[in-house]
Design goal:
Elements lengths: L4 E8 L3 E8 L4 E8 L6 H19 L3 E9 L2 E3 L4 E4 L11 H9 L3 E5 H12 L8 E6 L3 E7 L2 E2 L31 H4 L1 H10 L8 H9 L3 H25 L3 E6 L5 H15 L2 H5 L2 E4 L6 H24 L1
Parallel strand pairs: 1-4, 4-7, 8-11, 11-12
Antiparallel strand pairs: 1-2, 2-3, 5-6, 8-9, 9-10
């Protein structure tokens, strides 16, 4: 296969390491998925990443590779390409991921938090296409977030901005592993939905999908779980609307199939708690790329990086 300019995105998922070659227009060229063996340590995982990238380069052929973006589930030192902290990646803390991969491949490597990468993916070719200021809230085991300002991720001083899941929603709410109480992710994540389901005696092995199934079957108590979820999300989004005044707020993740059960309460809370004018200019929608958002967003990183470099060079001239 022959191609012009392209990039490669890598997503370090919970069970699989996924990589994709993506054209500069967002066209998916080729993809690969291999089991992720994080327990084997960072050197092993880096070897798998390098192998996946080489396979994709061989598939694409003579195209021009702009670089590789990697979405990582953890805190990232963006400038140095180092993982600061990642609970699901044992041994990665302080490991020079970028340096090791660059040594093997000789191309631009950019690391990014996985939720940030997903936000970029939705902005580039997803629900946020043609929108340069948006926030993505990712609902899963926990709750993550990505804040895009003028087409670029808002990182904060230490690269840790966007921890929407740890906004305090209920001051006297459920204890969180971060040390706080009442964090959004303790009241609206898939894990939280399952925990509430267990408290309501839906069974010791109930999942968020199981609670949704009960709601679909007409179980009124299951429906109340999603009323609670909607309230927490609505309070959070109202805060974000008042704070950022952005045009678009997106939600993604496992609990999204239950949208019809939690969205009405969520919207009610947003209406009660946000400024009327700001709310009237804002859209609250479902993301559309699903699990591929982070993959496309990671692929977008080197394209964006090269574009910004070209602009800087032109300005000097």
């Amino acid at each position: 296969m022959r191609m012009g300019v392209y990039s490669i995105g890598v997503d370090l998922g919970g069970t699989n390491l996924r990589a994709a070659a993506v054209g500069s227009n967002g066209q998916l060229l080729h993809r690969i998925s291999v089991p992720a063996v994080y327990s084997a340590g960072p050197e092993h995982v880096v070897g798998d990443i390098v192998g996946a990238i080489r396979s994709l380069r061989a598939e694409v052929g003579s195209g021009t590779l702009r670089g590789v973006g990697i979405g990582v589930p953890g805190f990232i030192d963006i400038d140095n390409g180092i993982v600061i902290g990642a609970a699901n990646l044992p041994g990665f803390e302080g490991f020079p991921v970028r340096t090791e991969i660059q040594r093997s491949l000789g191309t631009t490597i950019i690391l990014e938090n996985d939720a940030n990468a997903a936000a970029l993916g939705e902005m580039w070719i997803g629900a946020g296409k043609n929108v340069k200021d948006l926030i993505l809230i990712t609902l899963g085991t926990g709750i993550g977030g990505g804040i895009v300002v003028d087409g670029k991720i808002l990182h904060g001083v230490h690269g840790m901005a966007g921890e929407i899941g740890h906004m305090t929603i209920f001051p006297d709410g459920n204890p969180c592993g971060c040390g706080n109480c009442g964090c959004l992710e303790k009241h609206a994540s898939a894990t939280a939905i399952a925990a509430i389901g267990r408290m309501m005696h839906f069974g010791p092995d109930i999942t968020s999908a199981g609670v949704h199934k009960l709601a679909l079957e007409g179980n009124e108590r299951a429906k109340l779980v999603f009323v609670s979820v909607g309230r927490a999300l609505g309070i959070a989004i109202a805060n974000l609307i008042n704070l950022f005044n952005f045009p678009l707020y997106l939600l993604s993740g496992g609990p999204l199939p239950a949208w019809d059960f939690f969205a009405p309460t969520m919207m009610e809370e947003v209406c009660k708690r946000s400024f009327t004018f700001q709310r009237s200019q804002a859209r609250i929608e479902r993301a559309v790329l699903g699990a591929d958002a982070g993959l496309f967003g990671a692929a977008y990183l080197p394209l964006q990086h090269n574009s910004m470099q070209e602009i800087a060079i032109s300005a000097v001239r």
